Amino acid sequence: MQTIERESCRGIIETESIDQCYSLLFAKKQDRGLSWISKEQYIRNDIKCHYDQCIICNNNNSSNSNNSSSSSTTTMSNKQKKEEQKKKELLQQQKQQKTTINAKPIIIADIKVISEYLDILELESVKNNQTLVVLETVFRYIQYNSGPKFFDRLKKLITSNPNGDKVIYFTNDLNKQTQLDREQDKDKGNNQSESIDTYESRRIVNAARWFGQHLHDQKHLVKVPIYLITNNDQMIDIAKKTKQLGKETQDGDIKILGLKEYLYQYYSGNTSVLDVYESLTLMIKEKQLEEQNNTSSSSSSSLYERYWDDDIKAVELKSGNIVSGKIHINQFNREEAFVKIQSSTIASTRGGHGDKIMIIGKKNINRAIHGDKVGIFVLPESEWMDQSTSASVLGDLDDQKDDMIAEENKEEDQVLSSIQTTKANNKKNEKKIMTAKVVGIFQRNWRDYVGTIESGSTVYSNFVNVVPLDSRIPIIRVATKSAEAFVNKRIIVRIDRWDLSSSYPAGHYVSSVGERGSLETELGCLMVEHDISLRPWSKQILDSLPTSDTWSIPKDERKKRRIMADSGHRVMSIDPLGSKDIDDTISLARLDGDRVIEIGVHIADVTHFVAKGSPLDIEAQRRGTTIYLPDRRFDMLPAVLSEDLCSLWGGKERCAMSVVWRMELDATTQEYKIVDSWFGKTIINSCGEFHYQLAQDIIDGKVVDGKDRDEDVTNGGKNAGYRNRLHNNRRELAGALDLESIEVRFTFNESTKTPDRIVLKSDLEVHSLVAEYMILANAAVGTRIHQYHPGAALLRRHPPPNQLGFSNIQQLFDMFGFPFDSSSNSRLAESLKNAVVPGDPLANQIIKLKTVNVVSEAVYFSTGGFNVDDFYHYGLALNKYTHFTSPIRRYADIIVHRQLMDAVLTKPADQDDHSMAILADHLNLRHRASKTLQREATQMFQSLYFQHHPKPNVEAIITDIRSNSVIVLVPEYGLRDRVYLLDKDGKPIMPSDDNSFKSKIQSMVFNETNVEFKLEDGTKKQLSIFDHIVVNIHTQENDYHLPPVKMDFVQILKSQNKNTLFNKEQVSKKSIVDQIKKDEKSKDQMDHRDTTSNPYGFNLNQQEKEEEQEKLQGGKSSKHQQSIYELIKDLDDLKLEKIEQVGSRIDYSKGKTIVKKEKEGKVLKLWSMNDKQSKEYRTKADQYLRDAISKQYKQQRLLYLKQQQQEDGDDEYYDEEYEDDNEKIAPTISVKDKYGDLISKTEQGHLKALRDLSLSKRKFN
């Protein structure tokens, strides 16, 4: 609900952005809240034309103000009165000006022009050079006589221009000057009303006449050309009559033009506009010709069955005889498809394979396009598929990364237990797969398609075949007279129809993307495919932004915010290397030593700069999210905000939204517990800006003086966190899932801009630190906003997965005898944790990767539409969760920030469940499209990499078996793709270099978990899931699609040769804790004493050793279980204060409590190192630690010898430099043999002193 004008006992009158329906509305309850049904309309005389240059309408108060002034008095501040007076004076000056405005033409399009040529009106080159008036008469006709997607396009065209300088919506049917009643038809007599077509034509002509007269009566608008665009002869006749009867304007009446005449008059030099017009005109003519032929032709010439009538479909659907759902076409074979069914349908009780009904063959698919909502009729059981022969086909369909499947999972996210129960009772059907045929279309999903003209097509005819980029879409016959200009280009086309007698759908040309093979063109194609439009920031938005040079936090704003520095908080950020949009920081303050602490999560306050309802807010909502691609990103907000004023840079004051937890140390359990939470607006000044590797090195004690200038604060590692390792398994115990994902990144050649290296993201302990804090903040905010907005809070839920999807995962567990239980997230997590294959470290990773494809997608939702039990986040094991921590790159977080401040300030809610649910659906679509685009762009860059760097003899692991291939994972490059074992003719493909194949392959049998080879000499071989093979990786040229990565089968690896070809740094994502375990084990083997050496050279007693081992193994320590809150102390020990920015990063020597004199020479920064420098740096860092320990040993040794001299009464002076300065006494076997007793005694005494000091502090506190 937007602006309420007046209330009545039965309904309300409201104003909407498009409709402006001055109508009496009545509430009607529906599934998702209330809808408002118009029952009565009110004719008004104060409806504005909305033309931005019209002084008459702009000088008057809005209709709302006129109405309200008659019933109540509105008080205005002096500032508002001055602004109104200034506006009136300016308008009066404009009115008195003798000069006229040479504005762009105004066109009023009729119904036929809008419905047939909307593509032209959507072109930017046309929108920017005219003002289109959409009449309410036309708008309502399109609403009730076209499909929902077409109507959405018209609404989008209107709403994308809120200023009214390009598109105007005029409510002519409610304007007293333009409204007309239906008249009697004098020719027919008998009091019959005129035809609907005539009535609509009269209303359009009358509105056009008034519009022209209204504007031309103003002197400065006399020369503005106004056209009624129509191809309707009847309307032209009516207009001529109206012209004779109506009042003439000072400079002549509005002109009536056909669309072709208008386009050639104003766009004669714009070939792209004229190409679209010609293509649409050809399609319209062919459609008319087809309709004439269909009336005279027989059904015997049809290639497909005619769709059932809508009335029959509705009855059969209700009775359960047909099933509705979205059709999913197999991207590897367009003659295979499926429809996902719900457990509530009758078809789900008839057996089959899980929740899918197969559709096989072109005739059964019956002209349905991927994504259409279809009605399907289940075929007789005799035509069902045998499950043994269809398993790999179903696997092909499961391989598809289909956005619509995620959308359907949102509609039904409950476990389909009813299907499993029924299958047990239908044993006769359990080996059969249901098949069906399409009998009707409920809703088309046609969109813009990118394609390439088929090679061999005749470019001199009016129609050419275009092969779509999406392999699930059939070839499209496109009408165009300019086909020759589009050869070797990617073009955008739209489907218009698919006739019964045509093998392919017919469509028209929209625009050209660019030359095929160009990087910019191919990325542009992907964006079109996923409906991502990123127009440049408008001048209005850019002019409203502050400048980074002059902006500072206003004094009034300071009074409203908590300054975190005054609370003793030291704030720091930890982000990926090279991040420009730093939107989250963490902080810690000690209030009572270590007994009481405060930990804060501070998020960029984007809402301070993005006002609700502003043009920037509207555009940010449209984009929904920042899009990250391998070589670029597309920001949701302008760079001045995302990279500067909102970004929480170190050493600069920034506005933030914060969550601060007060924690107290429990004396019994030695754990910190949250005793209070605070939410609100703050001012922060980050004193430490880290990237992940630097933060991890500080925790590990690897940052040394002369490298990152932090020796004075890390103290050679003694202040960093080996004893305070991250050990928080509370969410894991509650059922949180630890699933795998492969994140691929690229380094690029600076000259060619092509990828020259593939880098896999490695997991660090500090990643978990940051993630846990962000998850904790998101959960806390989600709980808070739901308390205040129980019916319209924007939360994020992760529904439980469909249990039927775990059937393939179950097979993998059965192969190795692992127990598998997916009845709850905690049991699933336990099963995945225990599924470790001895001798194959990647097996567990593969199982987790496959599990990711089974679990459903997390989605945004409005709390008013779901039960509280459905709020649960399955993956994180949290009851309430939202997105709060990334407002720079996610619009959902901006909404959550606003809702949080409403809760803090106890403001009334201004959004209902219905509007919030619509927004949540939009954000889910944008998030899904962004994620899919990122995945496909990554695949494209992988292809580009292997195109320039083909790789022979790479080891891969089989993850799935398909009908003619196996799917493998190449861990070294994060690549998962197919290795074909059969060619296009179905003949076996021999491995290129495998001596174990003594003869040719005679036949193959593809089963669910293995492939059986039968050789000509009678021997047999087998490939199973988790087997390792060798492949050659290269790319395959393709004129129509992105060049696919191709892997050729080389040989089967024997068991003893597995994992021999992997780059150890890229095989698996080793955590730092696992690496330390390995190092400690090797040191234990070298040390004959019952002690464990940690990285800092100190020895631990047996009890401490057991505690450390428990932590490393993920178990619980009985006395000193560490939590995530303690790890931040390692970074807090840096004692950083205000710092200054140097270049692209931070000089950490500024503002420290101890600053050593900087050594001469170039200082290497960790973020600027290449691989070789990084390796040398780590080697030197380890050497530095050993040297520091050696120096300590030497000093202790000298002190010991001096004491011995004094005790023995030896007066001989002992020279402290008696040993060679170059001798380094590192903790090796030889050194410990030499100084063993002294080392043990010294270290034990040192540890005892530390424990005594810790105990004394506790007693003192």
Describe this protein's structure:
Its main location: cytoplasm. Belongs to the RNR ribonuclease family. It is found in: Cytoplasm; Nucleus. Residues 80-90, 1073-1091 have a biased composition (Basic and acidic residues). One of its GO terms (biological process) is nuclear-transcribed mRNA catabolic process. This protein is α+β, with helices and mostly antiparallel strands and 1261 residues long. Among the domains are: 43-55 and 99-269, 5'-nuclease (Rossmann fold, 3-Layer(aba) Sandwich), CATH 3.40.50.1010; 310-403 and 432-530, OB fold (Dihydrolipoamide Acetyltransferase, E2P) (Beta Barrel); 950-1055, Nucleic acid-binding proteins (OB fold (Dihydrolipoamide Acetyltransferase, E2P), Beta Barrel). Helices cover 36% and strands 21% of the residues. It is built from 36 helices and 46 strands. The strands form 13 sheets. Strands 22-29-28-25-24-23-30 form a seven-stranded mixed sheet. Strands 7-6-5-8-9 form a five-stranded parallel sheet, with helices on both faces. A five-stranded antiparallel sheet has the order 12-11-10-13-16. Strand 18 (463-468) and strand 19 form a beta hairpin. Helix 4 (111-122) packs across helix 11 (271-296), helix 8 crosses helix 9 and helix 25 (765-788) crosses helix 29 (891-905). The longest helix has 38 residues, at 1171-1208. The chain is globular. The chain starts with a strand and ends with a helix. The N terminus is likely disordered.
